[in-house]
Design brief:
This protein is an alpha/beta fold. It has two domains: 121 residues, Rossmann fold (3-Layer(aba) Sandwich); 95 residues, Winged helix-like DNA-binding domain superfamily/Winged helix DNA-binding domain (Arc Repressor Mutant, subunit A), CATH 1.10.10.10. The chain has eight helices and eleven strands. The protein has a five-stranded parallel beta sheet with strand order 2-1-3-4-5, sandwiched between helices. It has a four-stranded antiparallel beta sheet with strand order 6-7-8-9, covered by helices on one side. α2 runs parallel beside α3 and α6 packs across α8. The longest helix is centred in the middle third of the chain and has 17 residues. The radius of gyration is 19 Å and the shape is elongated. It starts with a strand and ends with a strand. It binds calcium ion. The site of calcium ion has 5 residues, from loops.
């Protein structure tokens, strides 16, 4: 799968590129709108991650250029502006999704995967273990059919646990995927977040799904 990133902020661009490459994608990065337009027209990409505010041409002009030339790749807009008109404008121009900055990398990755799957097979994007269900597309979580309200971080954390269910996730991996933190960061944040997530997802139910492996990390699974 080939992804084009158009992002002028050096750190953000490098960071997204690195993360997506580690996730197994082939990635090109353009640093301004005119390079982005050119690469998108000449390359064969499955998906483009397009910043709105760009030098030379803005994200909307880039997208118009691609669509005008018949380029149909899936487009995910990134924007620092939380304006409804911006969102509507992007979607009207043919963007497929919209993500507000700042975002956790895990969230970007989840959206990218959902968009790519939707593009190919129109899968439902529903992740589940036992009676716990997470709808990645509609951003909704239920357990036993009962709606559970999560914060954005809790949702990202649960989504990560679900996507890698049965796998032991270390605190440092969770920190880097959900909080953009380094290995050395204070991992207490993770424990607190897990506790909050458990209070909503596990505590009211008899069967526990989130398990602690002392000294190792956490795993989400149905245990006998
Ligand atoms: Ca920008």
């Amino acid at each position: 799968m080939k992804i084009l990133i158009v992002e002028d902020e050096l750190k953000t661009g490098d960071y997204i590129r690195q993360g997506l490459m580690e996730a197994g994608f082939i990635v090109d990065l353009a640093r301004d709108g005119s390079d982005g337009l050119h690469l998108g027209l000449t390359g064969d990409y499955d998906l483009a991650i397009l910043d709105v505010m760009l030098p030379k041409l803005d994200g909307w002009q880039v997208l118009q250029g691609w669509r005008g030339a018949g380029k149909e790749m899936t487009v995910l807009f990134l924007s620092a502006r939380d304006q409804v008109e911006d969102r509507v404008k992007g979607l009207e121009l043919g963007a497929d999704d919209y993500l507000l900055k700042p975002f956790a990398f895990a969230e970007l990755l989840a959206r990218v995967r959902t968009l790519l799957r939707r593009g190919k097979t129109r899968e439902s994007g529903i992740l589940c273990v036992a009676d716990l269900e997470l709808d990645a597309l509609r951003r909704r979580v239920t357990r036993g059919g009962q709606r559970i309200d999560l914060t954005a971080k809790e949702f990202a954390l649960l989504e990560l646990l679900l996507r890698r269910k049965g796998e032991v996730l270390t605190r440092s991996l969770i920190a880097s995927q959900v909080w953009d933190m380094n290995f050395d960061s204070d991992t207490n944040v993770i424990d607190v977040a897990i506790r909050r997530l458990r209070a909503k997802v596990d505590d009211p139910f008899e069967r526990k799904l989130i398990h602690t492996l002392r000294g190792m990390g956490y795993v989400l699974e149905e245990q006998a």
